[in-house]
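User: I'm putting together a small comparison set for a docking exercise, and I want a reference complex before I start. The sequence is below, and the ligand is magnesium ion. Could you produce the 3D structure with the ligand included, as structure tokens?
Assistant: Of course. I'll restate your input first, then give the structure tokens for the complex.
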Amino acid sequence: MKVDAITLREIRMPLVHYFETSFGRTTERRILLVTAHCEGVDGWGECTAGEHPFYNEESVETAWYVLSKYLVPAVLGRSLENARDAVPLMAQVREHRMAKAALENALWDAEARQKSVPLWKLLGGTRRQIPCGVSIGIQETIDKLLEKIAIELAAGYRRIKVKVKPGWDLDVLERIRSRWPEITLSCDANSAYTLDQVEHLRKFDQFKLLMIEQPLWSDDLYFHARLQKQLATALCLDESIRTARDADAALELGACRIINIKLGRVGGFTEARRVHDVCQARGIPVWCGGMLESGVGRVHNIAMSTLANFSLPGDVSASKRYWKEDIIEPGVEVSRGGFIDAETQYRVRENVIEKVTVRKETIKAIGCSI
Ligand code: OSB
Ligand code: MG
């Protein structure tokens, strides 16, 4: 598979509803998409970096810079046996995992198309039905949040996750639990608390949550281990797990009992599979996180979720929760029972993508004529 050219583009898409976390509110997504042109086959990848470096240190601008200046030149013109061969070629660049993931995943997509094998099979997946949950952002009022939860439960979602932060936590969980004592419920703090708040966090135990996601610092393992010892509720790490080595260290320390895997955060399919395997070997369940992806990233999340140890419902939900019109066809749909069918085949709608593109650059290998 020769990498003839790579196209970078930025698209802009308004969200159907704004999404608010402890680090801020998103109303429109700026998304960097990568197309790998390989011997007549195009593979697509999505960069999950946000517009601002608030979830982690990357942003659309840093990813564009690192891709165009370093990562694309590292793979351009190369003949790769497999997409995973791109990983060592990009390794000279430290961190910048979301930028690397966008390119590596585009190459996986190209490899799957070239071999005429579904991506989930190429990855070694076995699950055909992906259990789905939803992540619901901070709302103006608790009543508004309860209304949203009722809608998602009626749609069949199998796990509700709410965003929390100091001042939007215990009262919120209390109201949810008094209306729905039995639903599978979790919360995500995106690093909004510190270890001084252990006593406060211990009060979360009364709500029988499936997990508390990333309560402490985004780069921390050690203090999460200290906190986990003092809580009955399982901790789940998101931001802190960037590599399989992080996962190994976190589990050895006892920093969490569940891990959220995001393709962008860990740098692409190759490292995501390693994180999955580390957790599986230690009997720790994983689930697929979301980053408000367009259809391109969403389809990759579905493929990854077919791996055996993705046993908990993920944040991968229907396209229509995010977009009036998604850039894939059909949009991602969730059954009444709350599952996504992993075998559905999707097509990238290039005409729709062109309409929402605000910048585009194609970088070609020397002698390439496309
Ligand atoms: O922490 O999981 C998170 C969205 C943006 C940044 C971080 C997170 C999220 C979500 C949304 O929770 C998940 C989704 O619906 O895509
Ligand atoms: Mg999270």
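The two ends are 15 Å apart (CA to CA). The domain at 121-348 is CATH 3.20.20.120 (TIM Barrel).
User: Thanks, that's exactly what I needed.
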